[in-house]
Amino acid sequence: MKKIFRHLILYCFSLIVANFFTHNLVFDGTIKSYLLVALILTVFELILKPIIKILLFPITLLTLGLFRSVIDTLGLYLAVFLMPYFYINDIIIQPFSLVGLNIPFTQISGFWAYFATSFIISLVFHLFSKILIIKIHQ
Known about the structure:
This protein is mainly alpha-helical. The chain has helices at residues 2-22, 31-55, 57-62, 67-82, 111-137; strands spanning 25-26, 87-88, 91-93, 96-98, 101-103, 106-108. Helix 1 (2-22) crosses helix 2 (31-55). The protein starts with a helix and ends with a helix. The strands form three sheets. It has a two-stranded antiparallel ribbon with strand order 1-2. Strands 3-6 form a two-stranded antiparallel ribbon. The protein has a two-stranded antiparallel ribbon with strand order 4-5. It has one domain. It has five helices and six strands; from the N terminus they run H-E-H-H-H-E-E-E-E-E-H.
């Protein structure tokens, strides 16, 4: 039960942080919607993802583990499919210059928007889960 609750809170926090960086997650504005999407991602992570990993192990092996990112993206597709008021917009990067490097206007859409958002959510989730585990055991 503690594991489910910890995943739920971490996914809710990860959704908020990912939305802060990408501005492409659209909710109905209530904390309930964040919690429901986090619950779907938690169920996907704890129940469905291990089954999918076993079934798609040969593909994961052939791609040297890169296919795991696609499996994470499936969780976002599942959340969008199950929640009528949650969807993912395109990621729009405004042009900017950083130390002589000019970044042009970029728009990431479709599967790649889901993929990038999934990557950011997973990164934040795993980073803060490692921090919390270190803090809990000290």
